[in-house]
Amino acid sequence: MITPDEVRRLTAVIERAVDTCDERQLSFHVDGRGFAWSFKERVHPKQPRAPRLDVLAVRCPMARKEFLIEVAPDRFFDDPHYRGYPAVLVRLDVVEADELAALLADAARLVAAAKPRKPRKRST
Description:
By secondary structure, the chain is an alpha+beta fold. The chain is built from 3 helices and 6 strands; from the N terminus they run αββββαββα.
């Protein structure tokens, strides 16, 4: 089982990765864009989602997400909230550390390669 501390160690070696985690949830960014974060589950209808430290959402291309879910549904899955969104949900209690490390590194590169955001216009 990969613990939240182990996830933080895996991301600490990723160039330009910023750890904005707290005791309730994991959150990692590159250039202000998230590449991995704690899955937030809807426990009760019409109530706020609750972060889970045992499931990590990791950005990836849709084709890779679909492939991972198809070949390893014990480790990777989707949720109605994430359908059509380029991030796969990872069960930390069954994924291997090297597999997660590679997925995290790829996610950080994907986010870093994205076009820079246009600055917001300020109203005066």
